User: Fold this.
Amino acid sequence: MATVGTPLATKATRHGPLWSVLNLSGWIPLLVIAIAWELCARSGMVTAYMLPPLSVVLERIGSDAIEGSLGLQVAMTLYRSLLGFAIAALVGVVLGVGINRSRFMRWLFDPLISVGFPMPKIAFLPIVILWFGFHDLSKLTMIVFDAVFPVVTATVAATATVARELLWSARNLGANEGQVWREVVLPAAFPQIMTGLQVALPIALIVCIVTEMKMGGTGLGGAMMETSRFADSPGVFAGIVEIAVVGYVLVWIMSILRRKLLGWHPESQAVSNR
Assistant:
């Protein structure tokens, strides 16, 4: 049995995240929920309006996909989410490094981040609407404003906790301050910065959906609100399933990028050796 199990384990290790997705045992809880959903909806305990059967919801998703409306809604939501996330990632990393390198920036931004991080940023949505209207600029502003905080805090914490021995060694070898940051601090802090980015990406998607619901227009959030206005229960639940799938795919892709970008790091080597 040992000789049979070894190739399977090696195959799982070689495929990494893709193998974990194809591994059916991890999908059993979702399968149980799906079956319970279908049985509960068809049992008569609730009306079809309150909980349409999963099969009806999946049929609705299929028809929307064939018509082309689903692709448009998903594309618009992904466009706003990923663009806002990219801007937040760039601004957050630059700002986090600047806070650690400049006393003035630390004095200026540290209290703002301390106050703003735990605050529900969605409270600023009426102000953003007043300033920029109901167009994409308002939605992108809210996405960046919300997603930038975990990136900043992760960057500040990561760059501040780099081992002093590494900095002393680099300076003793003749590296200037810019080289120390580019070749020592940022590579050493990159795993924790990636963690901040992994937190920021779902936030970007969540805020995008919320702003689409509030402002309307194309996108998964706007489509859900449109169906709810017409009491289209399968359409509403179809939107929930679509958002869940999009969110899962984004998080899965981000985990793959982390493994690829941190292939040199001990955490990736530890995962590959499991």
Observations:
- The chain has a mean pLDDT of 83.
- The radius of gyration is 23 Å.
- Residues 194 and 263 are 13 Å apart (CA to CA).
- The chain is about 80% helix and 0% strand.
